[in-house]
Structure formats: structure tokens, C-alpha cells
Amino acid sequence: MTPAELITQRALVVGAGVTGVSVMQYLARHRIKFDVTDSKLDATESVQEVIGSGTYIPGLEQVDVSQYDVMILSPGIPRAHPMLVAALKAGVHVIGDVELFASVVKGEVVAITGSNGKSTVASMAAHVLSQSGRSVELCGNIGTAVLNVLPEASEATPGVTADAMPPEPIYVLELSSYQLESTHRLAPISATVLNISDDHLDRYDSIEHYALTKRQVFERARCCVVNADDDRAHPSNNNTAPILYFSLSDTSAKFHIKAVGDELALCIDDDCVLLASELCVPGLHNVANALAVMALLHPLGLTHLEIKQGLCSFPGLAHRTELVATRQGVRWYNDSKGTNVDACMKAVLAMSGPVVLIAGGQGKGVDFSPLHDLVVERVKALVLIGEDAPLIRAALEGATELFDASSMLSAVKIADQVAVAGDVVLLSPACASFDMFDNYMARGRVFRESVEQLAA
């Protein structure tokens, strides 16, 4: 909804976290009156600063849904909440911040979702664009709220003509399924669902329900970038946008790999653009990520040289198979962002030596048994932490030597005792972090600090 459409509506902002505050600030800039609700009993200082004449309603259960025309929902609050179910039944329009962004954005948008790799692909794409001299904003689920990166000219400022507006950047959006639930008008120049694996099954009825939500990113895309190796990541048959395929196994895909001597080359049609060994980030999954970036940026007209230079200079992200130390011949990797089983498996496969794996946390209802064969083959010891450690132990008993740890420091000390020169110690939890930490970044920082204590 545009500001002009919202000005006549009675609006409620649902959720007062980072996203909610960005929505409030956006509405306040456009002099749109709104109320706010959150599970917290008291409004925070940041909320009080922008709420103006609106009302703060402590507790979603206290909301009278009949009073509102539109609710702007923070992604962390499920649409299945009873208050929101009642609102939807009453005909209230429930949208999110990305929907507000989509209604006013003038620049091109590249939209990225998937179970794994979306932060890396979004950051990699933004890096390639920036290195090629394009103006770019990286935002969405990756950290910066989309409404906070819009230039004022995007927001239909009265009296400002289109000719007087500076050109907008290219927006690279990382989108979660939660954000896509409340987004309908986004029309990216290219969009992708990188992959689908078991995740968030505590919020969705089934993996197909989860995949269907992810595939909403394709609905208004002008080009669909499709992982040919994952059937669940394909757009629906009624989508008529052009499709660009990328693949690690199908050389008929426009973006593919092929052997060149002893090397793997990343190719666009018959043109080998770069070698896998030229990437700074390890693992075949990062080759797939790079192919996805090549496909996503294809409609923007970058040259093959610009793509190669950008990809080869991308240093990787913190908490994604990040090398944090080498100590007595043992390499220590932080993959705290590996919050599901598929991500953990990819991280293990990216390692070049025997692995001492640290895993555990909140499993979100997933099945850990797919790890079994890989653990037998590649993991010499598994150190378990967190709430769902017993579930992982039950699924992997007998696959390798198992240890239990009560804290991250304890897990690191156990791993240090087990590992020998040539081994890799890998934190890739296959779980969310909220049982022990504020988020995966805090978990990764504590891991790094624990490793540093070993040398103290």
C-alpha cells in the first residue's frame, strides 16, 4: 500500500522490534496515524519516540480487530496467531514492511530466498554490483530493514517530479518465508528460491507448505532464477516469466559447471567465466551460490569480466564456514549460521580433513537422521550442546564418538582434546540458537572467544 492509500486507513503496527520501528518511522514520515501492539507490557523508548498520538497496546490479545483496516506485521509474529486469524477473518488487510517497500520502490530489485545460502548469495550479489561500480543497497532479512534504505524520493514526495529525483540504487533483498507471507506486490527484475530443505516446520504444516510460501517470490518476478537440482525450488506452472537455470549437475543449464583439466569451471552457456579454485569461499555449495549470483545479475547486463572480478574478490561472511583460527595444525571454522540439517551437511562436505563437529540447539522439529551417513563418513567426533542434544544423540548414536557439553566453552575444550593436526573443528549446529544465545551471531562470537581462550 502506498502512503496515499494508507492515509485514509486505520493502521496498526504489529510488533515493535527492529522491523516494527522502521515501519513506525516510515508511517510517521508520511504523517499516517497508527497504533502499535507488541507482546511486551511497556513500549520501549524507541517506540515512544515515533508513536505520536497513537496508542500502544500491550499484548496482541488486547487488540480489538474491528478498529483497524490494515495491520503491518513484523515477520517474527506468525499469521496463525489468534488475533491475526480473527483480523483476517474480519477482512483486515495484513501486510508487512516489504509490501510497503514494494509499493513505492523505483529502483530495480533482486530478490533472494531459500533455506540455505541466501545471506551469502545476497551479500555476494551486492558485492559484485558494488565492485562493478553500481550503486547498491543490501537489505531485508539480512539486517537492514527495507524501509530504512529508501531514499526520500522513492516515497512519492509531493511536488517532486520524476526528472528531479536522483537515480535509485539496485536493491538486493534477502527474504525469509515469514516476510513473503505478507508480501504480494514485489516485482523484482530477478528472483530465486535457492533451495528447499526441512526448516521452520514448527511454523508450517509441512515442507510443501513452507516451499509454497518461499515460491511466492516468483509471483511477479520478471525473471525467475531456478535451481535445476531442486524440484521444490521451481516456480508454479502458471508463471510466465523467463527462466534462467543454474545447476551443479546439468550442463544444459545456462549457468553450470564443467571440468577443465583438474579444475571445475563456472560457465555461462559455452563461456567459462572463472575457476572454482578462484573463489575465496570454500565448498561446492559456494560454487552453487556463485552460479546463482551469475544468473540473478544476468538481466542487469554485467559483463563476464565484471562478474568474475566481483566473485573472486568476495571474502565470505562471518559465521558462514568462517576460518577463525589455526592452532597446532587444527583449523577451527565458525558456521554458526548453519541453523538446519542441510546447512550443516554442506558445511561438513566443504571441509578438507576429518571433522570434529559441534552441533545442537533448538532443532525446530526437524529430523536429524539425514546426518547419519555423512557423520559416519566424515565426522570423527560429535560434541553436542543445547536443548535438542538428546534428539541428535538418539538419531546419530553409533555413527561416531559422541560427547555432551554444557556450554560452548566446554564444547570447544572437548573438541580441542579430540582433534589432532590435520583435523578440522567445525561449529555447524544444525539448530537455532535461542535456547542458549540471543541469535546465531552471538553463538558464533562465543565460539570464537572460546577458541581464543585455548591459546591464552
Q: Could you give the topology of this structure?
A:
Elements: H1 3-6, E1 11-14, H2 18-29, E2 34-38, H3 45-50, E3 56-58, E4 70-73, H4 82-89, E5 93-95, H5 97-104, E6 109-113, H6 118-131, E7 136-140, E8 170-174, H7 177-180, E9 190-193, H8 207-214, E10 224-227, E11 243-246, E12 255-260, E13 263-268, E14 271-275, H9 284-297, H10 304-312, E15 322-327, E16 330-334, H11 341-350, E17 355-359, H12 372-378, E18 379-384, H13 389-396, E19 401-404, H14 408-418, E20 424-427, H15 440-455
Parallel strand pairs: 1-2, 1-4, 2-3, 4-5, 6-8, 6-9, 7-8, 9-10, 10-11, 16-20, 17-18, 17-20, 18-19
Antiparallel strand pairs: 12-13, 13-14, 15-16
Helix pairs in contact: 6-9, 6-10, 14-15
Model description:
This protein has 456 residues and is α/β, with parallel strands linked by helices. The protein folds into 3 domains: 90 residues, Rossmann fold (3-Layer(aba) Sandwich), CATH 3.40.50.720; 213 residues, UDP-N-acetylmuramoyl-L-alanine:D-glutamate ligase; 134 residues, Protein-Tyrosine Phosphatase, Chain A, CATH 3.90.190.20. The protein has a 6-stranded parallel beta sheet with strand order 7-8-6-9-10-11, with helices on one face. A 6-stranded mixed beta sheet has the order 15-16-20-17-18-19, sandwiched between helices. Strand 4, helix 4 and strand 5 form a beta-alpha-beta unit. Helix 6 crosses helix 9 and helix 14 crosses helix 15. The mean pLDDT is 93.
